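Hi V.,

Quick status before I head out on leave. The structure for the redesign project is tokenized and pasted below; the design run finished overnight.
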């Protein structure tokens, strides 16, 4: 019998610690770093949800602030994906700071198809530089959203 995959098994709701433990090092440390950052910086609590979306099925961790989505984190064994939805008006600001962003992150933004005035950035976090970029995007998103108060 095949071992069940904790993240894909919709019949069992994992705890936050189980999700964290699912990932291999050094990704687990990056995951914990980002989660702690979001919880401390934005006073947002993690919400574990299951997605049946064909693009990224499985358990994920969502963060909201003032009723608006901050980001969604999708755990994987060797990396994790941070979904950060930014408005189209942020794209020129990000481009203006392009020397601060990893080429892979910029490529994700540049190739994202606009949807209802937003860009859905599915960013694979596989190292500290990309993790820092995700934090920068969250800060930029947060600073430009009037109703999303700390």
């Amino acid at each position: 019998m095949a071992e069940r995959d904790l993240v894909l098994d919709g019949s069992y709701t994992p705890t936050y610690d189980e999700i964290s433990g699912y990932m291999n090092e050094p990704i687990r440390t990056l995951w914990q770093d980002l989660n702690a950052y979001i919880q401390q910086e934005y006073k947002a609590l993690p919400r574990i949800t299951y997605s049946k979306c064909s693009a990224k099925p499985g358990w994920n961790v969502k963060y909201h602030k003032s009723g608006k989505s901050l980001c969604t984190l999708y755990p994987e064994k060797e990396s994790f994906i941070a979904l950060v939805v930014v408005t189209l008006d942020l794209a020129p600001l990000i481009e203006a700071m392009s020397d601060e962003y990893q080429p892979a992150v910029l490529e994700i933004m540049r190739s994202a198809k606009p949807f209802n005035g937003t860009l859905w950035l599915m960013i694979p976090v596989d190292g500290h530089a990309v993790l820092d970029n995700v934090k920068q995007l969250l800060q930029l998103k947060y600073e430009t959203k009037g109703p999303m108060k700390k």
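Above is the designed sequence. Residues 146-150 have pLDDT under 50 and may be disordered.

G. will cover questions while I'm gone.

Best,
W.
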